[in-house]
Amino acid sequence: MTTIKIINKSQHALPNYETAQSAGMDLRANLETSVTIGSLERAIIPTGLYLELPDGYEAQIRPRSGLAAKKGITLLNSPGTIDADYRGEIGVILVNLSKEPFTIENGERIAQMVIAQYEQIEWKPVEILSETSRGEGGFGSTGHK
User: Fold this and answer.
1) Region of residue 13 (left: phi > 0; alpha: psi -120 to 50; beta: else)
2) Is 69 helix (H, G, I), strand (E, B) or coil?
3) Under a CB-based contact definition with an 8 Å cutoff, are residues 5 and 51 in contact?
4) Nearest CA to 47 among 5, 92, 82?
5) CA torsion sign, 113 to 119 to 124 to 127?
6) Is 77 one of the annotated binding-site residues?
7) Could you tell me whether strands 109-117 and 42-52 are parallel, antiparallel, or unpaired per DSSP bridges?
8) Helical H runs in the chain?
């Protein structure tokens, strides 16, 4: 298990896995007063959390399915990426895609965070790529089943 340093300046508990096989941990709004996001408006919601990720790791910030399905609240940059060299507060860019205003209260679960390993690559410019059965087929090219 990887250990990650975290500073928690919120009054909420640290993010945690809700079940033994959860991939993500819920992030909570850290607000002095509630924030209302109007229809088609967006806001950056602070969490009070600061991370020190090890080299080769990122934190992915993803929407919560319940907020998206029931309220039309999602993330603009989904998934958002927190790089290993970022030391600022985690902010969540929420957008309201519904027709109704949505109010976020302090402590409300607003997003989920997944910690993932990644590998940096080196480009190798070439003139030809290897052939595959799919070839250049794009969206919908593999048919429907």
Assistant:
1) beta
2) helix
3) yes
4) 92
5) negative
6) yes
7) unpaired
8) 65-71
For the chain, report the end-to-end CA distance as a whole number of angstroms. 39
pLDDT tens string 61-119: 999 999 999 999 999 988 999 999 999 999 999 999 999 999 999 999 999 999 999 99
Report the distance separating Cα 61 and Cα 144, nearest Å: 31
- Contacts of residue 22, Cβ cutoff 8 Å, sequence gap at least 6: none
Q: Which residues contact 99 (CB under 8 A, 6 or more apart)?
A: 39, 72
Give domain 5-10+22-117's CATH number out of 2.70.40.10, 2.60.40.770, 3.40.50.800, 1.10.150.120: 2.70.40.10
66 has binding-site annotation = yes
* Mean pLDDT in residue range 19-43: 97
Is 22 annotated as a binding-site member?
no
Q: Is 2 annotated as a binding residue?
A: no
